[in-house]
Design a protein that fits this description.
CATH topology of the largest domain: pyruvate-formate lyase- activating enzyme
CATH superfamily of the largest domain: tm_1862 like domain
Structural class: alpha/beta
Oligomer: single chain
Helix content: 25-40%
Number of strands: 19
Number of domains: 3
Bound molecules: S-adenosyl-L-homocysteine, iron/sulfur cluster, FE3-S4 cluster
Strand order of the largest sheet: 2-1-3-4-5-6
CATH class of the largest domain: Alpha Beta
Radius of gyration: 22 Å
Distance between the termini: 55 Å
Number of helices: 14
CATH architecture of the largest domain: Alpha-Beta Horseshoe
């Protein structure tokens, strides 16, 4: 038998992207090759997201399409992973009988076991434990993994997961149910992984977790018996020889002064933070169970800007949370003016079954949600453009991400996408100084100094 080919499709957040890499690496280490097309694959893995109804619909429609593929090629194996898999478990096999395997969010490290035990049988592996120990997993640079196209796509820039799960139970959110309790990864495993990545030419790392600020708090990770925290982890990771360090996501309630100071103290920490606020009304924030007020949030923003005056702040916003009045929404618009976010991701509230807010009355109509969303986004676009325009005629260092016929595309420390026309040779991962001559809403244009 020749080597088996897998195809992996990822929906959802960066945590899911990293989980897909881990599954791909396990498969590669066991003789699978990664294919680029569904039609050539013997095994299809769909890594799913259920954060909003729309995300889940996308997954379901792809799974629906695969029904025909399975009918035409009965030997094909279909595996569903990620948050929809965790949530649906056995039920998914009933709804989608052409699916062979369902693998939960804490089980991705066991993918080989799932595929290879009792071949031919359908199987569901979705056990979750509060005492889950994130396995040590650092096989990134075994020679066979060099053949993985999904890993080669951006060899200089990597995600490192530092924690799993979430304990916050924001009333609208499905994540605590699909990812389980908050568990911090062993700090030595994280640092070893970072060092291996750096040794192999990685220049930028983003540390990942649903709420990185509480790293080490839920199940305390200690070093030589002393307390350890996210700011300490950042400082240790910064010793690795990396050029750039980022992290995501931060919950405002856990953004400590020590962490805010890190922007001053750690040279390679990029001047950028994603700090989801969700809403600009205290009563909505309370119903969301966010555990901070608008005033608390504004204080954190001030503290960040005192520590790092040019820090780029981005956020997430939900419009149309149950009970959100016109007045509440105006307060979100006012917050936007007060903070002037560099950018934001904004969403219409989506009911997720099993969450607390799905049982709340006073649901906002689709029409009002759509109106609020488009008003918010239109104003955010204007602010993003104003913020970006302030960079015109300034210079900045860009890390090259991809090369095109005219030059390259890269990113600033603030996380702007920067397009540069250049005839000089450059490679992904290079750091190049440019002057900005044009600003758009979502990107900048620069030329080499
Ligand atoms: N852990 C991150 C967020 C992860 S989910 C944090 O707490 O900041 C990413 C974003 O999806 C959230 O910030 C929120 O804005 C949005 N979101 C989550 N559940 C949602 C829902 N039910 N409806 C609409 N948007 C939602
Ligand atoms: Fe969801 Fe809130 Fe946890 Fe973020 S902090 S993942 S929004 S429950
Ligand atoms: Fe989606 Fe799960 Fe991430 S619901 S946003 S893939 S944690």
């Amino acid at each position: 038998m020749g080597s088996r080919i897998f195809y992996i499709k990822t929906f959802g957040c960066q945590m899911n992207e990293r989980d897909s890499e881990i599954m791909a690496q396990s498969l590669a280490a066991h003789g699978y090759r990664e294919g680029q097309e569904i039609s050539e694959a013997d095994l299809i893995i769909i890594n799913t997201c259920s954060i909003r109804a729309k995300a889940e619909q996308k997954v379901m429609s792809l799974l629906g399409m695969l029904r025909k593929e399975k009918k035409d090629r009965p030997a094909l194996k279909i595996c569903v992973a990620g948050c929809v898999a965790q949530q649906e478990g056995e039920q998914l096999l009933r709804r989608m009988p052409h699916v062979d395997f369902v693998i939960g969010t804490q089980n991705i490290y066991n993918i080989i076991e799932l595929l290879e035990e009792q071949p031919g049988n359908k199987k569901v592996l979705t056990a979750m434990s509060d005492a889950y120990d994130i396995p040590r997993f650092i096989p990134e640079f075994q020679p066979e993994n060099h053949l993985l196209p999904s890993l080669l796509a951006r060899p200089f820039k990597k995600f490192v997961t530092i924690m799993q799960g979430c304990n916050n139970f924001c009333s609208y959110c499905i994540v605590p149910y699909t990812r389980g309790r908050e568990i911090s990864r062993n700090k030595d495993d994280i640092i070893d992984e970072v060092n291996v990545l750096v040794e192999h030419g990685v220049r930028e790392i983003t540390l990942l977790g649903q709420n990185v600020n509480s790293y080490g708090l839920a199940n305390t990770v200690t070093r030589n018996g002393s307390p350890y925290s996210f700011p300490l982890l950042l400082k240790d990771v910064a010793q690795s020889g990396l050029k750039r360090l980022r992290f995501t996501t931060s919950h405002p309630k856990d953004l400590s002064d020590d962490l805010i100071q890190c922007f001053q103290e750690i040279e390679i920490l990029c001047n950028q933070i994603h700090l989801p606020v969700q809403a600009g009304s205290d009563s909505v924030l309370k119903k969301m169970n966010r555990k901070y007020t608008v005033t608390d949030y504004l204080h954190k923003v001030d503290a960040l800007r005192s520590s790092c005056p040019d820090i780029a702040i981005t956020t997430d916003i939900i419009v149309g949370f149950p009970g959100e009045t016109d007045r509440d929404f105006e307060q979100t618009m006012r917050l936007l003016e007060e903070v002037r976010f560099n950018g934001s991701f904004s969403f219409k509230y989506s009911d997720r079954s099993g969450t607390k807010s799905s049982g709340f009355g006073e649901k906002v109509t689709e029409k009002i949600k759509a109106e609020r969303l488009s008003r918010f986004q239109a104003r955010q676009d204007e602010i993003s453009l104003e913020k970006n325009s302030a960079f015109t005629d300034t210079s900045m260092t860009v890390m090259v991400e991809s090369i095109n016929t005219k030059g390259f595309q890269g990113r600033s420390v603030f996380n702007h996408v920067v397009h540069v026309e250049s005839l000089l040779p450059s490679a992904p991962g290079d750091l190049i100084d440019v002057t900005i001559f044009h600003a758009g809403q979502h990107s900048l244009q620069g030329r080499i100094i």
